[in-house]
Amino acid sequence: MGFRKHTTTALALGLLVGAFQNCSSGFSSIDLSSDLAPTSSAQDSNSSLPIDPAAPLQVLAQDSSQIIDGILRAEIRLNKPDSDNITVHYATSPGTATTPEHFFAIDDSVTIPAGQTSVTVQLPVLASGTAPLTFGLNIKSTSKGLIGRATAQLTIAANSVAGPFLPKVSVAQHFACGINPQNELKCWGNGFNGQLGDGTNVSRNTPSPVIGVSQVKQVSAGDWHVCALTNQGAVSCWGAVTNFYNYGQLGNGSTTGSLTPVTVQGLPYIKQISSGFAHTCALTAQHTVLCWGLGRRLGNNATANSSVPVAVQGLQGVRHISSGSDHTCAVTAWNTVFCWGGNNGKLGNNATEVSLVPVPATGLSQVKQVAASSNHTCAVTLAGKVYCWGYNGAGQLGNNSTTASLVPIPVPGLDGIKQVSSAYQSTCALNGQNQVSCWGYNFFGQLGNGTQVDSLVPTPVPGLSNVQELSLGDGENSMLCATTPLGLQCWGNSGNSATVLLPTTIQGF
Predict the structure, then answer these.
(1) Which of 163, 177, 242, 405 has the smallest number of Cβ neighbours within 10 A?
(2) What is the pLDDT of residues 221-249, one digit of tens each?
(3) How far apart, in whole angstroms, are the C-alpha atoms of residue 271 and residue 229?
(4) 505 forms bridges with which residues in the sheet?
(5) pLDDT for 468-506, tens place per residue?
(6) What domains sit in the chain, N to C, each tagged with a CATH number?
(7) Quick check: helix, strand or coil at residue 47?
(8) Separation CA 270–CA 284 (nearest Å)
(9) pTM here?
(10) What's the rounded Cα separation, in Å, for the pair 5 and 33?
(11) Measured between alpha carbons, how far apart are the two ends of the chain, in Å?
């Protein structure tokens, strides 16, 4: 949206931009460029607003290192109160981006009530970048109409806004894939559906290189297929060679599986991927979501399968996604959670009906990460608290009960959590000391505590330290893995070996 500039100033309006989570810090001026002026409308001659040619529009920003999860607070301020309500239409645009990641564009309005001088708005910024974020403002009076316009620019420093979490290891039912420290993509476990990506449908007890794809920065495994995201923002998928298990989840326009990676058709630059039982979703550089595969979980308000990506309806400004067996959840720029697909309460919307489009998780805010699984969903807040919802037959909600919940409920006793990972009926969390606690189903040793007894509350996983990330398999007898400086350590059951009750290093990874 363009905003005209004029030669005289009719209104002083301050725009203070600071970190929403820490507003007490000092402000420092950056990239000031502004102009506020009357329009050529005849209405301007009746304006009662104060005229102060010496008061420009200011843009002040907190040091970018203080920006928390990209949420900014903006105060739009008049230099004097007015007898009319003043409506400010504010829009942001990324300008000419030099990378596929960019600022999120907003087009909205806010009212400064009569007699007041300011109003606060929230401006989510989803990614760092060298391109400036342009603020444009139209100022209207209730009785006098459009009375002025303004523009200003702000650049968020590089690396000040975190991108989506990109796990390097992904565990599925009976198999796993991961990117090792040498940046090699390897898979191991059950391979009868071609999901190991080595050109065969042979199962392997040790990691085997995936052929035909390189420079991979994230991998995501579904039940019988796998997808990989490259440094170039492209996505390739493989597996599902048995027709019974293929619903188009490879995204290549067919329902024929592949023993080696094939390119997903028609995708723009992708920032993150997440695979479920027979579908995959992708987060675009424009912070929208595309999905493909088995229907009723693609978020496109349809029940049909799709072998090519389709747009999830009604979502914008998405930061992070996570797919469970038959549902997917997304964290938005406003740190809220929306979910869609199958529902036994795991959508968190106080209902059990399937939703073909995204619905908000009830009462949940300030979320930074979400983890979806077969039967339940969990989320981590900016404050490091964990909330879970859905089925609770094995205590996977962590609230010392086996009662299901249709809405998010807190997991007691957890603080400073950085990541949560949910599996079939188990959940694990990584805390600020890089230690792991797990709870829920434990028949195959999923809790990693040396027993096979379920736990209704979080219990520490012994022998693990300096954990970097977690990955839990979304199957009843799957394994769980933790990436550490000593190597990849896993426990549980891979489907090809005996149950392992304590973390054990994966050889050959």
Answers:
(1) 242
(2) 999 999 999 999 999 999 999 878 899 99
(3) 8
(4) 489
(5) 999 988 777 688 999 999 899 999 986 556 789 999 999
(6) 13-154 (2.60.40)
(7) coil
(8) 4
(9) 0.80
(10) 12
(11) 51
